[in-house]
Structures
1.
Amino acid sequence: MTLKLRDNLRFDPRRDLPVLFKAARRELAATAALLVAGLGLLAFLNIADEVVEGDTRQLDLTILQSLRLPGQPHQLVGPEWLHTAAADITALGSVTVLTLLVILALAVLASLRRWAEALVVLVGAAGGVVISQGLKHLFLRERPDLVYRAVEAANPSFPSGHAMLSAVVFLTLGALAARFSQKRRLKALALGAAVFFSVLVGLSRIYLGVHWASDVLAGWCVGAAWAMACWLAAWGWGRFSNPPPEGGGGPEGRRGK
């Protein structure tokens, strides 16, 4: 009896992999979110290790210098309108703008009585700020020299708070919007827009010289990981509190009947 139980608990690829693949296909969104969260965390840890060792210094400096006129580190490449646009775009990742966006999202969710989703947005945003500030003061990395900076910036450099928080807020809202959209095109639009604006904010920080490229990349990674972790929490709560009926296959299955 004991040996039989032990055999059943042992992982058997031929027996268990098909079951795992079937479950992954059935919960594709959750599988993708878990994959993004795991890969994002691993990528951040790898970048952090490289930054601590100083291995990213030369590449970071090369990227920064390529965005300045030769011999003029204070002068951005590109036309004047691009400089203005970058400053406007970078504001989308500021604490002020993201706080206003979160408040608006909370108001909408509260009016719809979607309390669980509102809690996810609130915890995601607040937790993102705590994680960002904690990591900054843990690594205490210096920003690029003042001569490279086109705008003012405070606090340590690693990871980029703008890149991380914009990823957290935009991806959390995008994932929630996609979750409640019934059309695939709307789901793709919500997630695509979230990724697009997060990338724009991060690139603007590099262009304006207030962050190293590795700061921004690390911010994207940990921000995406935290956003997907919050989405998974909402998904898990929904599955726990509203389990699908026997053979129903969840909301999608019920809509198809």
2.
Amino acid sequence: MDEKKITLDMEKRKCPLCNTESGRIIYAECGFSLRACVDCSFIYMDPIPTFLALQKIYDDKCDFSDEVMKRAIKGLEDWGRELFYDRVQALKKYKDKGKVLDVGCNFGFFLKMLENAGYEVYGTDISEPVVRYAQKNMGLKVINSTICEAKFPAEYFDIVTMFDVLEHLSDPFSDIAEVYRILKKGGLFLLTVPNSGVHLLKSKIVSLLPFLKYYKGNFTGTPFKANEMGLPYHINHFTPKTIRKMLMKAGFKKIDFDIAKDRKYDGRIIRGCLRKLYGFITRVAFKFFGLYIASELSVCATKE
């Protein structure tokens, strides 16, 4: 499908962190632009697709026919098993029991692992087909809603997880503030987001050395040209500094960063070795120099 045939209703936005309009354009791809706020340094897409347009591009991306669903479920089970297990083990280091909410829970595989580990689990997701699967096939307490629309009681959860979600939201601060409201005192907020500083650097290197380009063609199943910054799907771009600022603005005081464990790779030996080398370098840089050069930010914030 030719991306030029796609027309999206767009709307202007202010900086999601400080609510000003002082952003300067630092990156452009496929007709979309990223701005860096002059006041707080937050990087955000502006303009963005309207809420209905965002729903449409996600619906168009996802084919929920029975056959495609089966392949997606099987792929996520196989690919995610190690990842979800590691996340459960990481969570156990902080709290080994309690009520857990997973925002953007997808088919519920992570929640099921948590339930089997003894946690009381809940989930939200805006995709009706995946919620239906989690309810029917997994027997989970999952609702088809955003976290703000769900209206959970205040101080209800011991842990809230939000993996690879905040980068997609038109108002990420509101969701973080809602997490703070529904967490008990001493509760944990575990989240991951792409590290935009690293991805911007990669995009600059690729522009100078095109043969290093990892993304080619279009994003799978979409009309949009693949790009390092994930536009138009990733509309917020965090650095360690700006995710910390947003969490503190919501009320969190204790904020810790970590480096995710290396993943196994499916037979692509050279790529796998290079990624393991990169993982080793990121851990050394973080442990000994306090530098966060991993491509993903892994954060744990505590409500005190």
3.
Amino acid sequence: MKTSFHRIAAATLIACTAVAAHADNVTFLGYANGSAPVNFAVTAPATSGSTGAGGFSTQLNGGPTFASFCIDLYEHLSFNTAYTDYTSVAANSFSFLNPNAAADLGRLFTAYGAVSTTSATNSAAFQTAVWEIVDETAAGPYSLTSGNAQFSGDAAALAKASMWLGSLGTMNTVNLNVLHSDGHQDVIYATTAVPEPGSYALMAAGLAAIGFVARRRKAA
């Protein structure tokens, strides 16, 4: 249970700036691909503790399950509980503590989102990297052992998280949404990928080829 200070700080600094017009029904069924223990300490707003790190198997409005990742160390949630107080908002419209979070999370999901589903260690590493991006405000490269947000725990997961944070790359080809709740953990998830410019060119070329073949057959 957090203090009222934590609730006020979280509401102020990790608030949604654009809220959907209706509430979504959300159920977290458990860890999607396993988890690993991680200790966390955030300086401002202050919070610390130990938790399992890993993506959640998430069901939104009765649809198919997908993996989501916690972006809120100030709240809690329970598995197999039907929540009706969540709203969905685009990540680039969400007010993160780190102003670069939305862009860097997009790069993280683009580079390593698929790998995060292959093992408990990778899922824990991805979740830890998400927390670091969301809660880090110090200038310079991301670091799990210094700055505003610090993490310890499962060595393999932390090592991989550090490696991924150090090589995010420049590509950002995913759409990210946040499921926001005033009383429970906020989570982030990827929707359909954004086609790269080269993909549009290939699709256009393919359509042109199909049209050319169709015209030749008609002429014959």
